[in-house]
Specification:
With 277 residues, this protein is of the alpha/beta class. Helices cover 18% and strands 27% of the residues.
């Protein structure tokens, strides 16, 4: 059996999500959209997949490889423009799906606005632990925690919320309700995240409150209005991935080292650190 996946091209409503590559490759609860679709097709018994990509086909190819992870054969085809499902069916002689939603949730379109993106991720939380995924546990009703998460014993997690792999949540920090911390997000003590998404490798400073926003690196996007700003103060919000020279100052690194040192000998499971109010 054969299927075609269409990688979304440009979506002017969510320019930040497409800033660095393909929309189908954007992290969503730790995995990319294309990974969720591949897992879905594998569960449906599909053995051959063609991915039509008009933007960043090499990025898509790097994620899916040859498809052996899902027991399928995969071919990524570069296109000059985004095909419709009908055009893909005619070209590749197989049913086609546009990856502008999660599998099985066609009513939850991802890229119509940042609010649509946030709401779709919230609806997908209970389904994000796909059969090929390990290390994600629902430690309390509506609270999902990934592998190697370090969560302070007096941190507060209010479901529904999602904490990805290798996240760090400091003492007295509050996560949720309706909060998502993507992989390797770092919350300093007393930070608060509510109705928001913290992007991967993103540092949130002490006492900082994030609400109704997408915080990714130093960028802050209002989920309701779509307005984007850049936070200049690295002690408030910044990226921990390939940081610019100014982030390598002794003060910031000393602060991170001090926090991590406190947790060096703490090997408690994330589930024992959860407090629900």
């Amino acid at each position: 059996m054969k299927a075609v996946l269409i990688s979304p091209g440009e979506r002017p409503e969510v320019p930040f999500l497409a800033l660095n590559g393909a929309l189908a490759a954007v992290p969503a609860l730790g995995f990319s959209i294309v990974e969720y679709w591949m897992s879905h097709l594998a569960c449906c018994g599909i053995k051959q997949v063609v991915i039509s990509a008009s933007k960043s086909p090499d990025e898509i190819g790097a994620i899916v490889g040859n498809g052996s992870r899902w027991g399928m054969a995969v071919e990524v085809c570069a296109e000059t423009r985004e095909l419709t499902a009908e055009q893909a069916l005619e070209k590749y002689a197989a049913p086609a799906s546009v990856m502008d939603c999660f599998p099985g949730l066609p009513e939850r379109l991802l890229f119509q606005s940042y609010a649509h993106w946030f709401n779709a991720l919230g609806a997908w939380m209970p389904h994000a632990k796909t059969p090929d995924r390990v290390g994600v546990n629902e430690v309390s009703p509506g609270v999902w925690v990934g592998r190697h998460a370090h969560i302070a014993r007096d941190a507060i997690l209010r479901g529904p919320c999602w904490l990805g792999d290798h996240v760090f949540v400091g003492p007295r920090a509050v996560v949720g309700p309706h909060a998502i911390l993507e992989n390797r997000a770092f919350l300093e003590p007393d930070a608060q995240v509510e109705r928001s998404i913290i992007g991967p490798d993103t540092f949130v400073g002490r006492y900082v409150q994030i609400r109704d926003s997408l915080a990714w690196g130093s960028a802050l996007v209002d989920l309701l209005q779509g307005q984007q700003t850049t936070v200049a103060d690295a002690f408030v919000l910044c990226s921990l991935h390939r940081p610019p020279p100014r982030l390598r100052t002794p003060r910031l690194m000393d602060r991170l080292a001090e926090i991590l040192k406190r947790w060096k000998d703490d090997e408690a499971l994330a589930s024992s650190a959860v407090i629900i109010k």
